[in-house]
Amino acid sequence: MHLPRTAAAATTALIIIILTAADIQISTASPNQQLPNFTAVIIFGDSTVDTGNNNYLPDAVFRADHPPYGENFPTGQPTGRFSDGKLLPDFFASILGIKQLVPPFLHPNLSDSDIRTGVSFASAGTGYDDLTATIAQAISMDEQVELFEKYVVRLRSIMGDDAAKETVQGALVAVSAGANDFVYNYYDLMTRRLEFDLSGYQDFLLSKVQTLVKRIYNMGGRTIVVGGLPPIGCLPIQMTVELQNPLERRCVETQNLGSQSYNAKLKKLLAKLQSSLAGSRVAYSNVYDPLLEMITHPTKYGFVETKQGCCGSGLVEMAALCNAESPSCGKEMASNYVFWDSVHPTSTAYQILATNLSQQLASALSSASPPSS
Ligand SMILES: *[C@@H]1O[C@H](CO)[C@@H](O)[C@H](O)[C@H]1NC(C)=O
Ligand SMILES: *[C@@H]1O[C@H](CO)[C@@H](O)[C@H](O)[C@H]1NC(C)=O
Ligand SMILES: *[C@@H]1O[C@H](CO)[C@@H](O)[C@H](O)[C@H]1NC(C)=O
User: Fold this and answer.
1) Hey, whose CA ends up nearest to atom 3 of ligand 2?
2) Three-class secondary structure of residue 60 per DSSP
3) From the CB of 37, is ligand 1 less than 6 Å away?
């Protein structure tokens, strides 16, 4: 199989939280907003949801298959996940009662049961803009859809056509991307600024989101959740790139405003797509507010440090956000940090985020009109 490599850049992600805080959030969840029984989880996107596909791309710029990544993973080993432990797809699959870990589709030894309950096609460094995937030598979104096609072929061979169709229709499909597009092509490398103003680039990316959602729908996906942008200006790497005085680091406000205006447009687009795609549920996932909440009120969630990652606040070298030269703050200390590296949340933060996002989803699905069939 030839994997197309595409695009670009760093990563994205966000969020934080502490177990105790997560427990509190769970206990306050509204009991009448329950999630349906999904058959599987199917994931598209960037490093926020790449559970290890880049391990199998020899030229990928961004990899997390080395220490200190994975220090708090159940095995204590790096897996390719860009954090100290589990990522959003893992927490989601677990909240939904499907499984504990979502494997990367490129893993060579996927069992039939792995396939039946869902996989991730995501690739660290990618984005909606093909230029982003090219810069990062990551799997572009078009290529992720091609992998989804291969996945469906295997699913059919395991279950038969009808059951495979039901599995895809009953799956939760989640998409998380976009931050790399802005970080690399707009804010830091500025490649796309020659062609687009901010609003124009947002619209360019949103046209890609629309195409992706329609392709997923045409392949049978019916519940599709698309994540918005995080507060990009609060990623430690963005504060570093702005050459801020280390003692006075603060979120880059204009970049946060850019995320907000993109998110407002995305939310509208997804509502429009839901009404035009019969029987679909297309939900917006607000990662901005819960992440910013953790950054703004860290102690509420047990966090101490919000402005640098547990293993660094810059780009160590092209291939690594953290490596042996940037040892972590210590695996027990990671839960004091919102960010694990200069871009990605700690697993603790992801867990808090996952709880919030699953509640958002339950509420979005309970208010949406049921699929017409
Ligand atoms: C989901 O499955 C469980 C166990 O099979 C069942 O008890 C429950 O009623 C189902 N919920 C929905 C919303 O279908
Ligand atoms: C896949 O299975 C083979 C044979 O059991 C084993 O040698 C290999 O290490 C496995 N690969 C992974 C990534 O687990
Ligand atoms: C998610 O987090 C945001 C920001 O803290 C909060 O306003 C919102 O109520 C939370 N949503 C849910 C469903 O917990």
Assistant:
1) 109
2) coil
3) yes
- For residue 209, give the nearest of 173, 255, 176 by alpha carbon: 176
Q: Is the CB of 293 under 6 A from ligand 3?
A: yes
Q: Which DSSP string corresponds to 222-249?
A: -EEEEE----GGGSHHHHHHTT--GGG-
Q: Residues 238, 240, 241, 244: is their CA dihedral positive or negative?
A: positive
- Return the structure tokens found at 340: 């694990």
**Most confident option among 181-185, 309-313, 338-342:** 338-342
SS3 of 193, please? helix
Check 83, 84, 129, 344 and give the catalytic one. Answer: 344
pTM tops 0.85, yes or no: yes
CATH of 17-297 among 3.30.870, 3.40.50, 1.10.20, 2.40.160: 3.40.50
> In this predicted model, what pLDDT tens digit does every residue of 41-54 receive, in sequence order?
999 999 999 999 99
- What are the residue ranges spanned by the domains of the chain? 17-297
| 311 vs 155: CA distance, rounded Å | 39
- Selected catalytic residue, list 84, 90, 129, 341: 341
* Least confident interval from 84-98, 161-175, 228-242: 228-242
**Percent of the chain having pLDDT more than 90?**
77
Q: For residue 37, report the distance from its CA to the centre of ligand 1, in Å.
A: 6
Q: Which residues contact 296 (CB under 8 A, 6 or more apart)?
A: none
Q: Residue 159: pLDDT above 60?
A: yes
Task: Give the residue whose CA is nearest to atom 14 of ligand 3.
Answer: 356
Between CA 109 and CA 107 the distance in angstroms is 6
How many CB atoms lie under 10 A from the CB of residue 149?
10
Ligand 3 touching residue 231 (CB < 6 A): no
Give 106-123 pLDDT, tens digit per residue. Answer: 999 999 999 999 999 999
| Average pLDDT of span 63-67 | 93
Cα(58)–Cα(71) distance, rounded to whole angstroms? 23
Ligand 1 pocket check: which of 32, 33, 35, 37 to mutate, most ligand atoms within 8 Å of Cβ? 37
- For ligand 3, whether the C-beta of 290 sits within 6 Å is yes
The distance of Cα 16 from the centroid of its chain, to the nearest Å, equals 14
pLDDT band at 14 (very low <50, low <70, confident <90, very high): very low
